[in-house]
Design brief:
The protein has six helices and 19 strands. With about 350 residues, the chain is an alpha+beta fold. The strands form five sheets. A six-stranded antiparallel β-sheet has the order 11-10-19-18-15-16, with no helix packed on it. A five-stranded antiparallel β-sheet has the order 1-2-3-5-4. The longest helix is centred in the first third of the chain and has 20 residues. One of its GO terms (molecular function) is protein serine/threonine kinase activity. Pfam families: Pkinase. Keywords: Kinase, Serine/threonine-protein kinase, Transferase. This is Serine/threonine protein kinase.
Length: about 350
């Protein structure tokens, strides 16, 4: 294999050795950049290499390491050329109470990456702090898909993974592999990043139920019970009781964008902006049709709804949550041209990493 590599790649050093492969740092003279080449140690492990190739080709996410090329030897894949991630992994992530925003941004990127690969029908199966690294732009990327499954749900023979980060169902007979496996590992990682160890319940083999006294709330100080509860639910014994990674990602995004949304109301040639936390604006028409729209920092909510108030042609009641931009209509449909129409636009800010 060395002749296949030496003609294009210049070796820099050895990065590490895993269960089935050796990872070396090379300079790719074609791409003119540093890359990682993962080479099989034994050809009997070719199925794991094929799983990793399929996962990396199938997965689409900015938080997933890129695959550049595949090296063949007599029509057999023997190595893969991957993006080089020069940053640190998360094994030595340092968290202090004042760094809660940094911690949440890390979790946000991990949840987004796992959510993205789950959308592509991929389960990582060995997600943990040292299988994530920062790239040159300080973006976290998930790598090491040697245990990944690309058709889910799936089963396998024997328990494979990292103790302390393995979901209970991986110890079943036969083990069951589906998206909740990564959710459990994410929960363990969330605990590890703030305590330097996985949660106590995950250290048993198989893992046991989490004690009520064991909570992520013991380590971070945020006033968002929904998010705290979702992280703790990742450690549920029953996979069906765990949240999806998309739910976790969206909750983290909402927390990181607290107070950063803006709503614009346009009516009668006038424009009003609603962006101050705990502020509100009253909209009204004839016949006492009215509502007060408030912003709590997370959501825009129609409160004090009276009479005929419609959002996108659906009549609403008090405590209606706006999911996005909409048209608010005041007045009964029989009023026709005498109804009042208000366009309601919500900004779409992005999390700054």
């Amino acid at each position: 294999m060395s002749s296949l590599i030496d003609s294009r790649f210049q070796k820099v050093n050895t990065e590490g050795q895993g269960g089935f492969s050796i990872a070396d740092l090379y300079f790719d003279t074609n791409l003119e950049r540093h890359v990682i080449i993962k080479k099989l140690q034994e050809f009997s492990e070719v199925d794991r290499l094929l799983d990793e190739i399929e996962a990396l080709q199938k997965g689409k996410s900015k938080h997933l390491v890129q695959i550049y090329d595949i090296i063949f030897d007599e029509d057999r894949p023997v190595a893969i050329v991957e993006e080089y991630l020069p940053g640190n992994d998360l094994l030595n992530f340092n968290h202090t109470p004042s760094d809660t925003q940094i911690y949440l941004k890390v979790l946000y990127q991990l949840a987004k990456g796992l959510s993205d690969i789950h959308e592509c029908e991929i389960v990582h199966r060995d997600f943990k702090p040292n299988n994530v690294k920062f790239d040159s732009e300080k973006i976290l990327k998930i790598f090491d898909f040697g245990l990944a499954k690309n058709e889910i749900p799936a089963s396998t023979v024997g328990q494979i993974g990292t103790p302390g980060f393995m979901a209970p169902e991986l110890f079943w007979s036969p083990p069951v592999i589906d998206r909740p496996v990564d959710c459990y590992s994410f929960g363990c990682t969330a605990y590890y990043l703030v305590s330097k160890k996985p949660p106590q319940c995950s250290l048993s083999m198989p893992p046991v139920a989490k004690q009520s006294s064991e909570s992520i709330n013991n380590y971070i100080n945020i006033d968002n019970n929904e998010l705290l509860s979702l992280i703790d639910q990742c450690l549920e014994i029953d996979p069906s009781n765990r949240p999806t990674m998309k739910e976790i990602y969206e909750s983290l995004k909402k927390e990181l964008l607290y107070g950063k949304y803006k709503a614009t109301l346009t009516f009668d040639g006038k424009t009003l902006e609603l962006n101050e936390i705990d502020s509100g604006v009253k909209v009204s028409g004839g016949n006492n049709d009215s509502a007060v729209i408030r912003y709590d920092g997370y959501n825009f909510i129609a409160t004090e709804v009276n009479g005929n108030v419609y959002v996108n042609n659906t009549k609403i009641d008090t405590n209606f949550y706006f999911c996005g931009s909409a048209v608010i209509t005041l007045g009964h449909p029989d009023l026709k041209a005498f109804r009042r129409y208000i366009t309601f636009d919500i900004s779409n800010p992005e999390v700054v990493l």
